[in-house]
């Protein structure tokens, strides 16, 4: 049976309105509700289902970030993950944490935990990078199956249906492998009360990047973070002729 | 940032303001316009002037293009959104200022033209649409926020502000609206005040009679009454503002309001629970009040048939399928660690007592939003059932749910669905009886029985929706003859020609 490592990122909840800091160095995070990156939630759900189908023997969730990252690990544990690993990264290092750092951490942990599968969300809804799965696979030199909308386990390999431009692509790859979860892979469950209670007793191991020999020194500098341009107000035109005129003026007809 | 991923999720979770879904619900049933109110109900047109070109030219001089006369454009203003009533007004007015409202009302009073004031048109008792050809006075263009005071927490705004927009504006100041209801994306604060709307958190934040500090209203003779106090305490003479809170536009038109707004809670938690019986719900309610104490902000119940409306018709996902009863328990507080501990302890207790069979709890805004949809969108989903008889009843808590089984026995297969849900913490149940088509026989089987039953337990025949057009003849089930008489005298005094929202509120 397979051991599965899942990456879970703590992001600003998507129902919360995002505000840019006045000094344009980033977005306001203080006092703002965070939750698990929804695509990572799909990754967790898939891992837990693999366990329920007796394909996976153990599911381990990893989150990189400040102390509050343990909250998303608790959510993962309540959904059915067996244990959590919190890689603590704070301050300036956390502010400039990039997929390259996280994938190095995930690769190290995959080796350490003898994982057969690494599953992560295809992207996080805060930076929209869509890089972690790919780079993790590169560091491990494992096959990668990104944008998965269906995963089937064979004897020694897995068959993954991928969402590609214009349709679906089905690929087969050897294990161990890295998979990134797309939106239609599954619908994540709500943790039920008994499982929320049980999750409190499940272990969370705390590590630092140093423990794993990963250097999280910043590689980028944030120059400026700005709001998207606001939509211009429309105009009401009195009749069709005026509309046609305007369209011609703008070169649309 | 927050682009592609977030947009995909929004599509999947169908996050949309109620306004859009209402528009869709309209479109869905466009082919089947409800019967005209004058044909469905035995009601006589009052002795009001018919609209003339002279009237129209006065309105057009005053408002310019903010006068709608085209029949199809007037249609949405003539039909309530649950499509239970339909008027045939050919004149919709959209004033932008109190002075314009004053001039309109004064003119109408002089010429005896009947007026139907309208906010977001989300009412459920036919109070906000014309019965015949009354001129519709839409407050939708009066949507300015005039002042938000961070320290006192007082909001002053015009009547046509949409509730949800106000809540968003207040959120920048660390404040929130003291009321929240399913129609928040469409309903106007002026309508909320005029109907004394209740909603999901009345249990914690009280009703509008407490939260409204002051208001400005236009009387039937066009006079502008300035009661726009922002004081918490002001015992100087009669509290005239109360004449306009809950009188459904029959005594005057509310144009501005001053509202006391509580601080926006730093910590919000929501539990969604599955239970086996109403007896257990009562036990959990009692425990919630005692154990959650000051942080309890909402306590709602939903029966299985109500929740199925959302899952079947609107495809909202229910995380706990197939329990006969559900409860939503929400907490508002200032410290999440404290609130979560309290809530978890409470949940552990009710689980180990076997009162709650299963449940889920979360403080993630997106998940809480999804769970609330199961409660807030029931009214919308019911539209897909056919015709819905809606009752909004206060009953002593022990009898809260008893009407549902009684009606089931009484109607049997005549009804498609008989469901009950509502504000358990406030003893206010929404009883909904869905039928394939409206027929007089079914109507007579239900009314006045529902009201007689309510009266027997000294309940209220309208807990929060108001009287509107649908219930004036049942007002006596909840109010004494003397009370109704005094209401009539007040109406006569304030609106001698009866031009304000006629055929409604009073028998």
From TrEMBL, chain A:
It is found in: Mitochondrion matrix. It comes from the Eukaryota. Residues 24-216 form the Electron transfer flavoprotein alpha/beta-subunit N-terminal domain. Pfam families: ETF. GO terms for biological process: amino acid catabolic process; fatty acid beta-oxidation using acyl-CoA dehydrogenase. GO terms for cellular component: mitochondrial matrix. Keywords: Electron transport, Mitochondrion, Transport. Its main location: mitochondrion. InterPro entries: ET-Flavoprotein_bsu_CS (IPR000049), ETF_a/b_N (IPR014730), ETF_b (IPR012255), ETF_beta_N (IPR033948), Rossmann-like_a/b/a_fold (IPR014729). GO terms for molecular function: electron transfer activity. Heterodimeric electron transfer flavoprotein that accepts electrons from several mitochondrial dehydrogenases, including acyl-CoA dehydrogenases, glutaryl-CoA and sarcosine dehydrogenase. It transfers the electrons to the main mitochondrial respiratory chain via ETF-ubiquinone oxidoreductase. Required for normal mitochondrial fatty acid oxidation and normal amino acid metabolism. ETFB binds an AMP molecule that probably has a purely structural role. The electron transfer flavoprotein serves as a specific electron acceptor for several dehydrogenases, including five acyl-CoA dehydrogenases, glutaryl-CoA and sarcosine dehydrogenase. It transfers the electrons to the main mitochondrial respiratory chain via ETF-ubiquinone oxidoreductase (ETF dehydrogenase). Heterodimer of an alpha and a beta subunit. Belongs to the ETF beta-subunit/FixA family. This is Electron transfer flavoprotein subunit beta. It comes from Brassicogethes aeneus.
TrEMBL record, chain B:
Its cofactor is FAD. One of its GO terms (cellular component) is peroxisome. One of its GO terms (molecular function) is (R)-2-hydroxyglutarate dehydrogenase activity. Its EC number is 1.1.99.39. Residues 85-264 form the FAD-binding PCMH-type domain. SUPFAM superfamilies: FAD-binding/transporter-associated domain-like, FAD-linked oxidases, C-terminal domain. Its main location: other. Belongs to the FAD-binding oxidoreductase/transferase type 4 family. Catalyzes the oxidation of D-2-hydroxyglutarate (D-2-HG) to alpha-ketoglutarate. Also catalyzes the oxidation of other D-2-hydroxyacids, such as D-malate (D-MAL) and D-lactate (D-LAC). Exhibits high activities towards D-2-HG and D-MAL but a very weak activity towards D-LAC. This is D-2-hydroxyglutarate dehydrogenase, mitochondrial. It comes from Brassicogethes aeneus. The lineage of its organism: Eukaryota, Metazoa, Ecdysozoa, Arthropoda, Hexapoda.
